[in-house]
Design a protein that fits this description.
The chain is of the alpha+beta class and 1411 residues long. Among the domains are: 86-201, Immunoglobulin-like (Sandwich), CATH 2.60.40; 212-364, Immunoglobulin-like; 811-927, no CATH class; 1091-1200, Immunoglobulin-like (Sandwich); 1215-1380, no CATH class. The strands form 22 sheets. Strands 3, 4, 5, 7, 8, 11 and 13 form a 7-stranded mixed beta sheet that branches. It is extended, with a radius of gyration of 47 Å. The two termini are 53 Å apart. Residues 641-676, 1388-1411 are annotated as: Disordered. Keywords: Membrane, Transmembrane, Transmembrane helix. Residues 1388-1401 have a biased composition (Basic and acidic residues). The chain crosses the membrane at residues 517-535, 541-558, 579-600, 715-733, 753-772, 1203-1233, 1245-1268, 1288-1308, 1344-1367.
Length: 1411
Amino acid sequence: MSGSSPGRFAVWVVLLLFVLPLARAEAQALLQPAESTTRSGSDERIGISIPDALEPWVPWVLEQGPNGRDRRACPLDARGVSRLCAWPGLLQLELDARGGRFEQVWELKAEDWVSLPGDVDLWPQDVRADAEPLPVTARDGRPSARLPAGRHRLTGRFQWRERPESLPLPPETGLLTLALDGRAPISPRLDRDARLWLRDPGQTRADGEGDRLRLEVYRRLDDDLPLRVLTRLELEVSGRAREIRLGPVLLPDGIPANVVSPLPTRLEPDGTLRVQVRPGRWVLEVASHHPGAVTRLSRPTDLTAPWPEREVWAFAAQPERRRVELSGLERLDPSQTGLPGDWARLPVYAAGPGAVLTFTEQGRGDTDPEPDRLRLAREIWLDFDGQGYSARDRLNGDLTRSWRLEAAPGLDLGQARVDDEPVLITRLNAESPPGVEVRRGRLDLVADSRLDAKSDWIPASGWSLALDGATSRLHLPPGWDLVAVSGVDNRPDTWLARWTLLDLFLVLILALGVGRLWGLGWGALALVTLALIWLEPGAPRLVWLHLLAAAALLRLLPDQSESHGLARWRTVVLWYRRLAVLVLLAISLPFLVSEVRSGLYPQLAQPYWSSGGGVVGARMPAPTPSFAFDEALPDAATLSAPAEPGMARRESKVYAPSSLARPAAPPPPLERLDPKALVQTGPGIPDWQWRQVDLSWTGPVGPSDGARLWWLTPGWRLILVIIGGLLLVALGLRLSDLNLSGANLKRRWQAGFRAGTPLSLLALVLILGMTLTPRPTLAADFPSPALLDELRTRLLAPPECLPECLTLSSLALSAEPERLTLDLTLDAATAMAAEILDARSGWSPSSVVLDGVVLERLRRDSDGRLLVPLDPGRHRLQLTGALGAETRIDLPLALDPRRVEVVAADGWRIEGIRTDGRPGRQIQLIRLAGADSGGERPLTQDALPPLLLIERRLEFGLDWRVETRVSRLSAPDFPALVPVPLLPGESVQTAALQVEAGQVRVALAPGQTELRWTSSLKPVAELALTASTDPRLTESWWLDLSPIWHLDSMDLAPIHHRGQGERWLPHWRPLPGESLRLRISRPEGVPGPTLTLDRVDVQVEPGRRGTDTTLTITARSTQGGVYQLQLPEGAETRTLSVDGRTLPLPSDRTTQVELPLVPGTQEMRIGWRLDAPLTASFSPASPDLGQTAVNLTQRLRLPDDRWVLFAWGPGIGPAVLFWGLFVVLAGVALVLGRLHLTPLRWYDWLLLGLGLALSEVWVALLIGGWLFALGWRQRLKTASLVWWRFNLAQFGLVLLTLLALSALIGAVQQGLLGHPEMWIRGHGSSATLLNWYQDRGGPRLPELWVVSVPLWVYRALMLVWALWLAVRLLDWLRWGWQGFARPSPWLDRPKPEPEPLRLDGYDQDNAAGRG
C-alpha cells in the first residue's frame, strides 16, 4: 500500500471529527426555541393568569384530564371534590297497568351522561331528546344517554303486562310527580335507593287479625367498667292500642341507666317495663350497668309471656382492660339470629330460663407490653478532613415499653426533638448515659449528634435499645470513596460492589491475553492497569479487545509472503489495528484529562455542588429544625400542654381520678426549677449533598452492631489516578506495538510523517479540544410535561374557600297542620351545589323557589341529599311541601344553620332547637294531635339512678395540673347531684364550683351531659390514687408526664393501647377501691451548647482603597443573652442588624461586637470595612466567631478589572483550570515543534495556542490545519498530478487561507477586546466571584489567598502577542507562498500534440486494403 493511503485515511478522520461539532452546534440551534417575551393572559372563568404561550394548550390540557372535557363551568359539589354538570328538572310519570310515559328536562353545563328511569328489566322505549331519537346504553346497570351541553327535553315510554311493584328512578332526580291510571297526581313513595313504589305494602295485609304481640329479646354485654348491658326488645304488634307489661327486663343486680323507646314507656322499680303499644313494629332499648368486678350474670327466672323462651346474648369483650373466659351458655351462629348488623360480629350465646354466664378472669391490664417497634433512619456526613462524622437520626415507630431512650457509647448526643419540639437531654445519675424522655405511642424523634473520630467504624444504631431495622445514608465529601464495607445487610455502592462477573471475566481475559503475547510482566501490568481504570466513567474498555485481537492476528500473518491473499489480509489487519489505536486515543485522552482533573479538583467531578450556600440549581436539604420564641426554657405552657394538637380529638374520653389514698407521712417535694435544665442546640449539621452510600441493617439491631469501612482518601485517589494514567499510556503503547527505543522511535516518527501522521496528530488535537470544550445543552421541549401538569393543576384547582364555601346564615320554619315551609338564607363564595336536606327521611318539598324564581332543576347526591345549584352571592331558598299523617317528621340538615327561627308551629311541637336559636344536627316536628291510644295518658318515666364517669388527666410539667371532666353515662333527662372527692393538695382553679370538705359537689341539670374543672397539684416524689367505691361513679385515670420528669415505677398495669398511631397516654380503669402508686423523679440535664451557628456566610469585596466585608450568621439559641464577635484589627463597623432589624453601631471604635440573642433561630448581619486594598497577592482578614460553626461559605467578589491567576482556600472552592490547559498546550507544542512539516518551533506553537485559548476550538483547529496544509503543499510532488487535480488543490488551499486569516483576525480582535478566560470552575465560581465552602470550622474562619493582576496587564500581553503574531504571520505567508507557487500557482490545460505525418508504407497499406 502506498504511503499516501494513511494520509488520505487521516484526512477523512479529521474531516469527520471536524464536522461532528459543527453538526452538534447546528442541531442545538435548530432545537433551541427562539427567545420571546411572555405576555400575560388570563382565564376569565377561573380568574387565573395564563401566559399567552400556554393559552392554546388549555383545551388540550383539560381534555387530558380525568373527565376528558372542560367542566369548570359546572358547580362544585359540597365537598369540593367533583363538579356536577347535569341537573335534572321535574320528572313527570304517567303510568297505568300496561305501561306509561315519562318526561324530564335536563340542563347540562358540559357534555355528560344522564340516567333515565328504569333498569335492565324495565328498559325505557322510544327515548327521544328534543324530539330526536336518542341512543340509550347501559351504564352501571342503569339506562343512560350522553348529552351535549345545553337544555334538553327527554321523553320515553314503558311497556309491561302487569304494573311492577317499583320502578327505579335516576338517583339524581330531585322533583317528581306521579299519576296512576289517569288519575290526579299522588304523593310518590320513594325509598333511599331511588326506587319508586307503585303498590302500597299495606294492601295485601288483612284487617282485623286481633290483638297479637310477638317479642324478641337480645342483650349486648359490654365488658367495660362498669359492665354494661343493653337490652333490645323487638315488638311486632297488631290489633288495638293497649298497655302491656314486660319483664322484669333487667338482669339481677342491674342498675337502670336509660330507656329509649318510640312508644310511651315506664320502667318500674322492680324492673318491669310498662309499654303503651299500638300496631306496628317497634324497637325498645333499656341500658343498665353492674358495678364492681362482675363474675357472673344470670337470667331472671320469673318471666312470663309474651317473654320468649330463649334470649340471645352478645358479648363485647375489652381485652385491653381485662381478659376473661366465658362459660355456662351455649354458643349460637349469629347468622341464624335476628341480631343487628354490628352485634352479629360478636360472640353470641343462647340464654334460657335461669341461665348463668360465668366470667373467669385471665388477666387485667397490659402487664407484659409487646416489644418496642422502632426503626432508625440516619444521615451521616463525613467531615471533609475525615476526622469524624455528623449524624442526624430519625427514630420512628411505636413505643410500648420504654419511657426513655439512651445513647450507646460512641454516640455523642447533641440535640433531640420529639414531634418537632425540642426536648432536654438528661441523665438519670452521674454514671448513666445521656438520653431523652419519651412517651409511649407513636414516636417521631430527630436527634443531632457526633460520632467518634474513628472513621473506619460507624454504629448501626448508637442507641441502647434494640431496633427493628436501621438505615444510614452516608454522605461522602468530594474525593472520598468507599472501597468496601462489611457488617451490613445490603449491598452498598462501593468499589468492590461495582464489579460484576462480566467485568472480572473481561479483565482477566485481557490480562491473560497480554501475558501470552508479551510475557508475564506485561500481563501483570495489564491486570493492574485495568483494575485501576475499569470502573471509572469514560474509561476505555472494549477497545482493548480489538487491540489484542489485532496484535494476535498480526503475529499469525507473516510480514512478507508470496501469497497476495495473505498480504491483503495483513494490510486489512494493520488498518484494523490503526483504527483501534485511533479509537483508543479518542477515548483515553478525554479520560486521562477527566481523571487528572477530578484527582486534583474533586469538586469538579460532578456537574454541580449542592449545599445550602445557594448554588443555583443545587438540591436543598431539609432545613435545620428551628426553635420558636417561646421554646427557650421549659415552662408550664409548653410542657403541660398536650404533646400533639390531635390529642384532644383522639382522646374523646375524659380523664378522671376519683380519690386519693392519704399516706401516713407526706412524701418529699420535688425540685420545681433546675438551673441545669437548658435545652441543648447540638453540634450543628452540615447540609451539603454530594455522593451518597446507603447502608441498611435488618432487625434486631443492637447497640454493638455496626459497619467496618475501608476508605479511599483524596490523597490516595490522586496517587492512584497518576499511576493508572501512566500505566494506561504504557499499556496502550505496548498494545499498539510501538518500540520505545530512541532509534526505532525516530524512524517510526519519520515514517509516520511521510504516511500522513501529521494529519493524524491534528485529529488528536481536535479530539483533545473537543474534550476541553464545555458541552452545549440542548434546549428543553416547550412546554414540558411538568409545565402542562402544572397548568392542568392550576386550571382545575379547587377554590381557596373550601371547605367553608357555603354558609346557611338563617332558617325560618313555618309548620301548619298540612304544610311545611322552610325559608333558608344561603351565602355562597363560589358556584356550588348546596346540600339542603335528606328529603327521603320523612319529608320532601313539592315546590322549590330560589330568589323568587321557581327552581326547575334539582338533583340528589349518592346519599340522597337534595342539591340546589347556587351562584356566588347571597340567596334565599324557599322549600314548601305537604305533611302527611305522620306523627313525627325528621329534618336532617346537611348544613348547620347559624340561627333558626320558628315563625309558626300550628299543631306541631318543634324539637332540636336550643333557646338561643342554635339548632342541633337534626330538627324534629312532633304532631300535637296524638294517635288513637284509647284515651289513656302517655306513660312518663321517673328519675333513674345517675352514672357518672370521672376522668382526670394528670398533666405533670413544671406545674402539676389536673384536668377533670365529669360526663354522664346514664339518661340525660334527669338531674344528678353527686359529690366527687378531690386529690390531697388539689386546689380547684375553676370558678362557680361548690367545694366542701375536699369534695366537689357535681350538679348536672336535665340535658346537661358534662362538667369540667382545672386544678393544681403540688409536685411530690410519690403519688397514690384510689378509686371511689360509690356505685354512681366510675373512674378513669390518664397520665400526661412531661419529658422533664421520669416515671420510675407504677404498681398497676395500664390498659392495653389498641392499634398503632399517634402518641398515647397511660390509661387506667380501676375497680372500685383499687389503688395506683406512681414514683416520679427529675433527671439531671446534660451540659451542652445552648448556641449553635448553623450557617456562616462571609462576602468580601476588596477594592483599591479598602475592603468591605459582610458577615451573615444563622444562629440557633435556647436562651437569651449576648453573642460576642471579634472583628479583625482595624475594622470599622458599618452595619449591624438582627432578623432585618437595624441595631445601633458601637459608640467607640472597637472590634468587639455584641449582638443580642433571643431563644430561637435568628439571622445576624455585620458589615465592616478595613483599610486593606486589593493587592496582587491578597488574603482577607477573618473574624473570630468565638466557637465552631457549620456550613461556612466564603465569597470573594473581585472588581471587573482584575485578572485572577491563582486561588487557594479550604474545603470546596474554585479551581483555575487554565493552568491545566497550559500544561496540555505545552505538551502539544513540544510534539508539534519536532515536526519539520512547518517552520514553527515549539515556542511558536505554544504562543499561538495561548493566544487562541480565548477563541473557539474550531478556530485553533482551522489555523493549525491551514499551517499543516501549507507544509503538505511544500512537499507535494506536482509532476505526477493531473492539471485539474493540481488546480483544485490550489483553489482549496486559497480558500483555506482566506478562512484561516479571517479566523486569525477574529481571534486577535477577541483577544484585544475580550475578557481573559481562566476557566474558573467549582462551587458556582466565576472570573470575578470566588466561592468556598467548609463543612465545619472555627472559631477563626479558614484563610483564603488569591493572586490577581490588573486587567491592563492582560491587555498589554495580548497586544504584544498580536504584534508578534503579525510579524510571524508575514514569515509564515512568505513560506507558504514559496510552496504555493512551486512550480506554478496555476496549471493550464495542456494542448493535444499533432500526430506526425508518415509517408513510408502508405501505398502498400492502402493497396492491401483495397485488395
